[in-house]
Each structure stands twice: as C-alpha cells, then as structure tokens.
C-alpha cells in the first residue's frame, strides 16, 4: 500500500514529491473493448494519470434502478493494470457537455427539490447515490493498493453558486462512505469562482486554456500554499449542431502546456481523448455571455480536437504534447500501441423495413396522459427522446395563429395528419394559421438538457402551453418515447416496406460486414434522428452539421450480418443514396 498526500508545495507519494501528468478519458464515452488501447495511448503520450467523471443519470436513469455502476470499477481496474493513477470526479454535477450535467431529470425535475444546494431532499438522493458509487471507488484507493489518488467535490461550483456549506456537506458524505483519498475542488481562475467553489482544508485547483501564470497567480491569492494544478487544461473544445468543428493549433496548445509545467504545476489535459456521447447522451448549452441565450445542442462526437482523436488515433497535437511531456520523464516513453483494426472494406446498408412514428410510439412508448396543460418530459419520465402532444382545435372557427409557449426544444407539427411545419424556441409559431375544428399533433424532441450555467436543470417539452390566437387549448393528450425503450429491441414494432416519399419513421435493415473493425456510418439525405447497430446506440445525427458521420466502434460489429435501425424524426430525401459504413 502507498500513501498519497497533499503537501505544502507538492503532491507526495510515500513522502516523495511527485508531479501529476494526467489526461481526461471518460469511460462512458469509450467502448469498453477499447479502454486498454486508449489508456496505453495516454501512457505513450507521457501521462502517468487518468481522470474521469461519473455520470449519475447514466447509471441511475430512473429512481431505484441502477445500471452497470460496476463499469466504473472495471475501468479503474484497467487503469491500475495500465500502470496509471486515477482521479475520480463523481459530481454529483459533472457538466462534461453531458445530458443535464450528469444529474437525473427525476432529481432536477422533482417538485420542491433544489439541486446543487443544501436542500435535504436533494442531499438524500445524493447520499443514496454516493453509497452505491463508493463500492466502486473505496476499494480501489491507493491506500488499498488501487489507482485512485484524488476525488473531486462537486464540479466548478463557483461558476454556479456560493453555498460552500453545500460543498462541506458533499465532502462529509464522501468521507462517510469511506473515501480516504485526498479531496479537491476545481474552478475557473476568477475570484468569485474560487470564493464560491473552494473549501478550507481541501485542495483547490483551477481550469483554463491559456495564460497559465496569471491563472496560478489568482489561485495563489486564495491559496498561498499547496500544490499548483490545472485540473482542466482545455487543449481543445467541443462543438454544437449547426456550428463549426473546433480546432486549436497544436504548436500553440503545446506552448501553453509547457508554460503550465514550467510553473512547477501538475496538469490534467481536458480532453486527452474525448470519445463519443453515444445513445443520445450529449448535453446542450445556452448561448450568450451569461449562458441565457439560444439553446446550442452538443454534437454526438466528443472528439474535442484532443491529442487522441475520436477514433483513437494520435494527432499532431499528440506528438507535440509527447515532446513536451518527455522532458519530465527519466527514461524513454513507450511507443503508441497498435491501433484497433479498421473495417475491412466499405459496406452498404440496406434499410428495407419501415414503421410509422405512431406505430413505434404505440409499441415502445409510455402510457398516454390527458391533462389540462401539456406535461413536461420530466412529468412523463422521459430522459432522452421525444413526446407526442395531441390537442383538438374546437370549431367551427376561422384560421388563427397557432403558437407554442415555452417550447423546448423542437417540434414537428401535423394538422389533421398533414405536416404543417417545424417549430423551435426562436420560431414558436406556425407560418400558416389553423382553422377549427382540427386535430394538431406536435412531436417534440429534446435536443439535450442544459449542462452548464444558470439554466441548468430546466424542464424539457412544452413548458408553457399551446395557444390558438390568444386562447389556451386544453385537454392535451401526451405520450413519451424514451430512447431507453430501444434497449430491448424493436421486434414487436410492426413494419412494412418503406414509403417512397421518405417520411419520418423507424427504418430497419442490415449491413453485411467483411472484416469487422472500427467504422463510421454516413447517412446522406437523412435529416435528424438516432441510429442503433446491433442494439448499440450510436447517437444523434443531424444534417445541419458540422458532424457528418457517426462513429461505429469495432466491437459493436460482427462478421457477416448486422442489424441497423434508423429513427428518422423529420423526413428523408426520397432520392437519397444508401447509407454506408466506411473504414476509419
């Protein structure tokens, strides 16, 4: 057993000063079959530690039901076998450009509960979660011959609140569950963030992408002693649908890394390898300086312009960082491991089955609810997916504008079965007025819950009401379709031949693979939806870009026939070419 402690100036391993050269790699964004390869890539870059968040909502999507929490333990075992230390960031809030910042919507949407505060109802949920999670962390701490050396309290809390008593309660909950590893907080290098987000007696670290000396000077004003550490060196950035792919010059980023290390600090590269937000778990942000503006949904790829790209390949940034980090190693660095095999050859996907969205909803959806006003996704227990709202316009009455108040995030609208338009938060009114009597259907999709800023935890769906002219329409029928419903397969959904006009629906078929391996799926002519291959959720696709294909990890594919489902939510170009798998 070893002892890892926080000294007056350095981290100490059994009393000897050590520097942490860490990289972020989220086990939940990497297929388990690739964990060891990605960890070996981090070692080859010159890192001695790996950092990961833990998403509460992934492991407990509904109250009382846990889902593969042991994945964290398996990952930490792989970290130890790779000869690396581990930093664990259990939240409960993690941000991470992840759905709802990692918190389950059944917690943030519970009436009367105040997330990220000392609210007792909220803390009771956290306590139960930490009790379960500790079983994976505590036995793997360094004082028990495991790799875990640091555990974070919350995450960038100073960017959100100032209740340090809440942080104290969280630290106490971690200690009560047997966490003996050194605790830390991480915040931006600004006075108000460090004042609101740090705790006396707990290591404070800072997050930034440049100006290392200024950042550490700010930290020193708050903490005159203790090791310096940049817990998140933002060496790249994430992307939004409809935006641009973020790129950072490798030489410039390597220069900032060198500056951090010349300050005598430890560092954690965020991200060292970003991976993918599979199965629709990507979050969203709000635009504007105060994060109160338009919704900006995060793309499925979490490539992050990281030194190890989404497919596990070393980039130019990898080699530049390796040059810098090699100076802090006594001996030569290991060579990068052989990359996983790519797909043997391109393959065309045949989608010869189709089910309407209505049939999919009737088979896989939840129970229909009738309410005076539209229920939210949270009230319908929908984590990720969509809700169909139906309401009748009484008649006879002349055509009036139809408006959706409080729409989050996007609605495809049908009037008497005919598509009438697509509504968004910014454009919540149909272009053509609606006369009565009529039946209006609104298929509302969540594009990802906000993961950062003051609007974190906001509800999804129709949060205001449906207006015909200035009159609210009541008696709303609502039924949700959660993406988790697809985990059990779609065999029960009735299907026939795809319609020629390329309408929305669930398209089913397959692809024959020769030489199973890492691939990417292209869907030219498709608009917006989700894809599963052999039941594995690849995530959201969207024609607005910048992402143009979906990553298919090699372990998902099998030699020969493979099943493919595509849930198209808006419509398809009838003259589209066939989707295809390509090697990466």
TrEMBL record:
<dbReference type="GO" id="GO:0005975">
    <property type="term" value="P:carbohydrate metabolic process"/>
</dbReference>
<dbReference type="Pfam" id="PF01301">
    <property type="entry name" value="Glyco_hydro_35"/>
</dbReference>
<dbReference type="InterPro" id="IPR017853">
    <property type="entry name" value="GH"/>
</dbReference>
<feature type="domain" description="Beta-galactosidase galactose-binding">
    <location>
        <begin position="506"/>
        <end position="562"/>
    </location>
</feature>
<feature type="domain" description="Glycoside hydrolase 35 catalytic">
    <location>
        <begin position="11"/>
        <end position="327"/>
    </location>
</feature>
<dbReference type="InterPro" id="IPR048912">
    <property type="entry name" value="BetaGal1-like_ABD1"/>
</dbReference>
<feature type="active site" description="Nucleophile">
    <location>
        <position position="232"/>
    </location>
</feature>
<dbReference type="InterPro" id="IPR026283">
    <property type="entry name" value="B-gal_1-like"/>
</dbReference>
<dbReference type="InterPro" id="IPR031330">
    <property type="entry name" value="Gly_Hdrlase_35_cat"/>
</dbReference>
<comment type="similarity">
    <text>Belongs to the glycosyl hydrolase 35 family.</text>
</comment>
<dbReference type="InterPro" id="IPR001944">
    <property type="entry name" value="Glycoside_Hdrlase_35"/>
</dbReference>
<dbReference type="InterPro" id="IPR048913">
    <property type="entry name" value="BetaGal_gal-bd"/>
</dbReference>
<keyword id="KW-0326">Glycosidase</keyword>
<protein>
    <submittedName>
        <fullName>Beta-galactosidase</fullName>
        <ecNumber>3.2.1.23</ecNumber>
    </submittedName>
</protein>
<keyword id="KW-0378">Hydrolase</keyword>
<feature type="active site" description="Proton donor">
    <location>
        <position position="156"/>
    </location>
</feature>
<dbReference type="GO" id="GO:0004565">
    <property type="term" value="F:beta-galactosidase activity"/>
</dbReference>
<dbReference type="InterPro" id="IPR008979">
    <property type="entry name" value="Galactose-bd-like_sf"/>
</dbReference>
<dbReference type="Pfam" id="PF21467">
    <property type="entry name" value="BetaGal_gal-bd"/>
</dbReference>
<dbReference type="Pfam" id="PF21317">
    <property type="entry name" value="BetaGal_ABD_1"/>
</dbReference>
<feature type="domain" description="Beta-galactosidase 1-like first all-beta">
    <location>
        <begin position="374"/>
        <end position="475"/>
    </location>
</feature>
């Amino acid at each position: 057993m070893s002892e890892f402690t926080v000294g007056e100036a350095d981290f100490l391993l059994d009393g000897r000063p050590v520097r942490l050269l860490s990289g972020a790699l989220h086990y939940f964004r990497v297929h388990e079959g690739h964990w060891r390869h990605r960890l070996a890539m981090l070692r080859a870059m010159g890192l001695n530690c790996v950092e990961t968040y833990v998403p509460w909502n992934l492991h407990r999507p509904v109250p009382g039901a846990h889902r593969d929490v042991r994945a964290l333990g398996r990952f930490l075992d792989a970290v130890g076998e790779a000869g690396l230390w581990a930093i664990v960031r259990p939240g409960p809030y993690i941000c991470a450009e992840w759905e709802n910042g990692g918190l389950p919507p059944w917690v943030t949407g519970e009436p009367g509960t105040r997330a990220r505060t000392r609210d007792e109802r909220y803390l009771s949920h956290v306590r139960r979660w930490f009790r379960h999670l500790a079983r994976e962390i505590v036995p793997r701490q360094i004082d028990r011959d495991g790799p875990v050396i640091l555990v974070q309290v919350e995450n960038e809390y100073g960017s959100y609140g100032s209740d340090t008593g809440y942080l104290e309660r969280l630290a106490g909950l971690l200690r009560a569950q047997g966490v003996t590893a050194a605790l830390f907080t991480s915040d931006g290098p600004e006075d108000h963030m460090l004042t609101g987000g740090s705790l006396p007696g707990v290591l404070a670290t800072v997050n930034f992408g440049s100006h290392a000396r200024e950042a550490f000077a700010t930290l020193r004003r708050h903490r005159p002693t203790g090791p310096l550490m940049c817990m998140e060196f933002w060496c790249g950035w994430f992307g939004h649908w409809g935006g641009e792919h973020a790129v950072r010059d490798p030489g410039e980023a390597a220069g900032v890394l060198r500056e951090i290390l010349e300050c005598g600090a430890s560092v954690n590269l965020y991200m060292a390898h970003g991976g993918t937000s599979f199965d629709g778990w990507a979050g969203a942000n709000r635009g504007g300086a105060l994060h109160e503006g338009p919704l900006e949904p995060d793309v499925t790829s979490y490539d992050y312009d990281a030194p190890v790209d989404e497919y596990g390949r070393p980039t130019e940034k990898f080699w530049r960082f390796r040059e810098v980090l090699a100076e802090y190693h006594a001996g030569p660095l290991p060579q990068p491991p052989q990359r996983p095999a790519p797909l043997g050859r391109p393959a065309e996907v045949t989608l010869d089955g189709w089910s309407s969205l209505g049939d999919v909803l009737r088979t896989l959806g939840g129970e229909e609810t009738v309410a005076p006003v539209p229920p939210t996704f949270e009230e319908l227990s929908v984590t990720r997916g969509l809700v169909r709202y139906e309401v009748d316009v009484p008649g006879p009455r002349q055509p009036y504008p139809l408006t959706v108040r409080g729409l989050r995030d996007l609605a495809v609208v049908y009037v008497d079965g005919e598509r009438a338009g697509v509504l968004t938060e910014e454009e919540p009114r149909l272009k053509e007025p609606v006369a009565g009597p009529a039946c209006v259907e609104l298929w509302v999709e969540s594009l990802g819950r906000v993961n950062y800023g003051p609007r974190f935890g906001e509800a999804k769906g129709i949060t205001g009401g449906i207006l015909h002219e200035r009159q609210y329409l009541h008696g709303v029928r609502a039924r949700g379709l959660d993406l988790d419903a697809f985990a059990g397969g779609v065999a029960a959904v009735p299907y026939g031949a795809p319609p020629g006009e390329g309408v929305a629906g669930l398209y089913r078929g397959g692809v024959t693979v020769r030489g199973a391996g890492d691939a990417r799926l292209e869907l030219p002519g498709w608009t917006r939806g989700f894809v599963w291959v052999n039941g594995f959720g690849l995530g959201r696709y969207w024609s607005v870009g910048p992402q143009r294909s979906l990553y298919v990890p090699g372990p998902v594919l099998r030699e020969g026939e493979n099943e493919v489902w595509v849930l198209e939510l808006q419509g398809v170009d009838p003259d589209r070419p066939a989707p295809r798998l390509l090697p990466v």
